[in-house]
Amino acid sequence: MKKVSFDFNHIPDLPAFYGEFARQFELTDEFGANLDALWDEVTGGIALPVEIDFLNLNASRKRRFGALILLFEEAEEELEGELRLNLLEKPAAKAKG
Hints:
This protein is α/β, with parallel strands linked by helices and 97 residues long. The chain has one domain: Barnase, Chain D (2-Layer Sandwich), CATH 3.30.370.10. Helix content is 41%, strand content 18%. It has four helices and three strands. The chain has a three-stranded parallel β-sheet with strand order 1-2-3. It is globular. Belongs to the barstar family. InterPro entries: Barstar, Barstar-like_sf. This is Barstar (barnase inhibitor) domain-containing protein. It holds the Pfam family Barstar.
């Protein structure tokens, strides 16, 4: 399963998220950079299965990006295991060894 991370310490707003999403999933300039276009990509455009980590997502950022989080949660439910979303307040610790 492919794993993609979005660090919200470096994503101040939705336009920045759309840009980073397009970069990480190698989307063309045709990507509409709005919630409808994002839904279309997540549910039928990007390669699945995929695990997506939202890093450094504190309470304030969860409120600011609420519509985005809801979209990914709904896609996770609709795609029945093909997409996994992890909301993390801090980056995951790296394994030692």
